[in-house]
Amino acid sequence: MSKRDPRHFASAGGVEGQAGIVPRPVTFTRIRDGSPEEFATVMESLWTLTGNLPNRILEALRESADEGVGGYQVNRIEHMLQSATRAHRAGESMDYVVAALVHDIGDIVAPYTHGEIAAAIIKPFVEPRLTWILKVHPIFTMYYYADFIGADKNAREKHRGHQWFDDAVYFVENYDENCFDPDYDSLPLDYFEPMVREVFSRPPRFD
Ligand SMILES: [Fe+2]
Ligand SMILES: [Fe+2]
Asked: Which burial class, exposed, middle or buried, applies to 75 when counting CB atoms under 10 A from its CB (0-12, 13-18, 19+)?
């Protein structure tokens, strides 16, 4: 059994089914009191967590289907599937399609900063351009509805001159503001699952 296999920890004396209790608990209660040996255990557990990341992403996407429609004709998962499907059919790269698929994944827990959530989730695994597009997409999408709510539709102008400004305009115009059509034949999440697994299983890049 691989050391990165979650079963490794249970078989090594971990505590299962108890919220807040981690496998093979260490003895310290403050991080500063740990030891290299104990942190070897902690890091092993972290590998389990990161190895499960694609499943967590897919789970979060599926759960977004239960979060109501938020006033639109489609729910959040349908909106994101529509975004990913349109990007896929337009010939965008796998990374781009996966970015489209998760672009509103933070909507539930961070309704005012959901672009930053999506950007943070995908940042270690894709090119910086895609991360930036996800980060700023909410303010770029405002261009299409801010007038309706008395806000500034040109708020995106603060990013004018940025090297990826036009890319963000293109994203929201082709894969976001137009993705609320209940009659669009979106591909199912299962179709995108291999792409999600590939992107979120890569060695992370920190910069
Ligand atoms: Fe959004
Ligand atoms: Fe969106």
From this structure: middle
**Domain of 83?**
69-199
Q: Are 74 and 173 in the same domain?
A: yes
Task: Determine, yes or no, domain membership for 144.
Answer: yes
Q: Which ligand is nearest to the CA of 134?
A: 1
Ligand 1 center–CA 198 separation, angstroms: 23
Q: Contacts for 200-204 with beta carbons within 8 Å, 24 or more apart?
A: 200/53, 200/54, 200/57, 200/98, 200/125, 201/51, 201/53, 201/54, 202/124, 202/125, 204/50, 204/124, 204/125
Which chain residues have CB less than 5 Å from ligand 2, an ion? 104, 176
Number of structural domains found in the chain: 2
CATH of the domain at 146: 1.10.3210.10
- What value does the mean pLDDT take over residues 183-204? 97
* pLDDT at site 7: 39
Do 74 and 175 form a contact (C-beta atoms < 8 A)? no
**Above 70 in pLDDT, residue 157?**
yes
Q: What is the pTM of this model?
A: 0.85
CA 138 – ligand 2 centroid, Å: 8
Domain shared by 125 and 151, yes or no: yes
